[in-house]
């Protein structure tokens, strides 16, 4: 069930979603490198629609686990579909990049 306000499904707000994901990343000591959206067609009798969100983050494995817990406890409902991991080195030491594919749901335009 998508984020509710006074018992009503919220409309999709891309700016709000970006702010929410950015806050979650910062709170869990992750760097949000980028994200993109893909709006799926409305379903569930054209009332509920889905947005696919790909998030690129840098941090530790523990940071990722904390970030995923934050998603799980968010009032906005997310479904983590895929996570890919890329380990590399930088001047600051080892770094881990994560690409997280998410789904989130919202009220479609009527």
Structural summary, described in words:
The protein is an alpha+beta fold and 110 residues long. The N terminus is likely disordered. The strands form 2 sheets. It has a 4-stranded antiparallel β-sheet. Strands 1-2 form a two-stranded antiparallel ribbon. The radius of gyration is 15 Å and the shape is elongated. The protein contains 2 helices and 6 strands.
Features:
110 residues; alpha+beta; two-stranded antiparallel ribbon; 48% strand
**Which structural class is indicated by helix and strand composition?**
alpha+beta
State mean pLDDT (0 to 100 scale): 81
**How many strands appear in the DSSP assignment?**
6
Order of strands across the main sheet: 3-4-6-5
- Stretches with pLDDT under 50, minimum 5 residues: 1-9
Which range does the strand content fall in? over 45%
Shape: elongated
Radius of gyration: 15 Å
Itemize the secondary structure elements and their pairings.
Layout: E1 4-5, E2 8-9, H1 14-27, E3 31-39, E4 48-59, H2 61-73, E5 78-90, E6 93-107
Antiparallel strand pairs: 1-2, 3-4, 4-6, 5-6
Task: Kindly summarize this structure in a few lines.
By secondary structure, the protein is α+β, with helices and mostly antiparallel strands. 25% of the residues lie in helices and 48% in strands.
């Amino acid at each position: 069930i998508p984020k509710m306000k006074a018992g009503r499904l919220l409309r999709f707000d891309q700016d709000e979603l970006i702010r929410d994901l950015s806050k979650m990343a910062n709170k869990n000591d992750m760097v949000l490198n980028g994200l993109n959206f893909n709006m799926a067609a409305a379903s569930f009798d054209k009332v509920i629609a889905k947005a696919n969100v790909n998030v690129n983050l840098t941090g530790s494995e523990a940071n990722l686990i904390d970030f995923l817990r934050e998603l799980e406890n968010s009032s906005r409902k997310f479904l983590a579909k895929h996570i890919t991991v890329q380990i590399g080195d930088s001047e600051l030491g080892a770094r881990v990049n994560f690409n997280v594919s998410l789904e989130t749901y919202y009220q479609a335009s009527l």
